[in-house]
Amino acid sequence: MDNNISQNTLSDIRQTLVLNAPIQKVWAAVATSEGIATWFMPNNFQAELGYEFHLEAGPFGNSPCKVTVLDPPNRLSFSWGKDWSLTFELVEREGKTEFTLIHAGWDANKVTEFGQSHGEVHGRMSGGWIGIVAKLRQIIES
Q1: Phi and psi torsions of 108, nearest 5°
Q2: pLDDT in tens, 68-99
Q3: Are 76 and 70 in contact (CB under 8 A)?
């Protein structure tokens, strides 16, 4: 089995869903410390360009992050750990909100701070984000 192609290029992980809620409600859930903690991880995030914060990743400790894009209520990006970035894109759709999560920065030649290959973690996170985004939907729409 030839893995050369997949070994060098790992695609961004993308999850898109339409939430039955106004854009401001979704923004509050994805761009505030309290909101992010309800569906993703505890954190000390602040919606401020250049702000450095941590995601509390349980057994993996605190992951350093930095806000790189802040465009309320449509786009938030931040660096995560040493290689990754997370982007939340929101688009208003007739009273509902299309939410896209993009987890980028994957490189098959790199390992995480915890010594795991990006390829190994990519596979786990691809599945993991499905559940995490489903939890966001549950919180937003309940």
Answers
A1: -60, -20
A2: 999 999 999 999 999 999 999 999 999 999 99
A3: yes
